[in-house]
Amino acid sequence: MKKRFFSLLIVISIFSIISACGKKESTGGGDVQESVKIGVLASLTGALESYGDQTKKGFELGMEYATDGTMEVAGKKLEVFFEDTETDPKVARQKALSLLEDKKVDFLVGSSSSGDTLAVTPLAEEYERIMVVEPAVADSITGSEYNDYIFRTGRNSSQDAVAGAAAIAKPGVKIATLAPDYSFGREGIAAFKKAAEELGAEIVHEEYADQTATDFTANIQKVIDKKPDYLYVVWAGANTPWNQINDMKVQEKGIKISTGVADIATLPTMIPLVGMEGFTVYYHTLPDNGVNDWLVDKHKEKFDGAVPDLFTPGGMSAAIAIVEALKLTEGDAHAEKLIEVMEGMSFETPKGTMTFRPDDHQALQTLYAVTLEESDDHDYPVPKLVRELSPDETAPPIMNK
User: Does domain 35-155+286-365 have CATH number 3.40.50.2300?
Assistant: First the structure.
């Protein structure tokens, strides 16, 4: 009898363990659910900290918007984990591995730096996980280093180049360039040069500075010596060259400045550039659509009246893209299912409709031709819309063949 009793206990125990292991997460209401896990990589400290913060806020708001505040899609919970890459490719790769192996994430998102992003994209293919790239812009991400698991909501350097070249390039114009000496800067200038030369302009000098530099005197002097008609600047981060360009009286020497208008923090440094013709990725007053209206209102509500900045809508767009894809797969987060629905997928964002081009998974999107004008509301100049540059107009060449 004792043997039979103990045998029965063992059977019950084994059955209980099997049952417990087979259970999925359940909500407070008792409904059985699985979760989808998303790992977001961003520069939350260091030189690109402000960009990482914008992406993080945008992504959180995007999840709220796309799920109507439920943080669920197709009956599955959405869990989001943020990791700081410290703007260091080695750290970015380590953090990505931790997300993939320890957190078992279904998606990766990021990052603020092209260098960080290029260190991580091969892992998406190795682990067969979708990575939504935002806001890194290096062409190679969806070009020479492309893999099928990468989808980019951020624009790429060639999209910026089309907008930048359209503002100043024409036959007979001589242009010098200044950019940081890493993939973002060099690929940005390469794309701009191609677009400008196709419009008939001549690139007379390319100048590259250390991305952490604070003294640009020698770099700017080399540009001045070439006597171009324009200096076209590609830059990212807090250490901008605008003050020294002004101190060295570049414009007084007959050299006009053109650039992409960046985040709000850089606008006070651009006071000497009032009247400049250029382009921007985003400024909160430029898009005219319901998603952007929601973003501006909700951002002000949550962040003490502050408006969304340059990369906030990109973070939001990445979140919306993930949720919309999961709706199409009915919650299936397997990469092969997601690739099938995301190729060619269109979705609404604060910048209007974006579409993932099937050929290279680059999101075609609106950019904005602007002039930099004085503002009655601020003590710094702001971008005023000249015209929207449509997704078709700014579509970059396909570079992953």
Answer: yes
